[in-house]
Amino acid sequence: MIMEPDTSDILSCFQKRRAFVLWAVATGLTSAGGIVLIVLLKPALPIRMLAVALPLGCCVAFTVQLLRDFARLDELQVRILLEAAATACLGVFFAVNLYPIFRFAGFVGELQPYWVLLLLIGLFLFGSFNAKRRYR
User: Fold this and answer.
1) What's the pLDDT tens digit per position in 35-47?
2) Is the pTM for the entire model greater than 0.85?
3) How far apart are CA 55 and CA 61, in angstroms?
């Protein structure tokens, strides 16, 4: 069996996996909305619980969808994905380990969790583009 090489760009995978992207966007929006709701309005306990439960539910749905998508990938796609994940994990590992040194030296300020998340996403995308380019 001869497999045709994938000549599409890396972003075309998002068109094939709409549910994955929609759950990722829903997770981000409900998280941001929950933070804004809790910080600005300081609602009663049931509303705060709902503001925490919605992003948690979206995260669970995102994870389930991601695992379903992984099961449908071929070996090359899995290799590209694992290389991208390794790039992201190692980059965040180095950044988190070097952060205290930079903090005590006065080069950086207080570390916010969303910066770590943005670094993780950025490194994952960089790893994806790099692996996709290498395995063409």
Assistant:
1) 999 999 999 999 9
2) no
3) 10
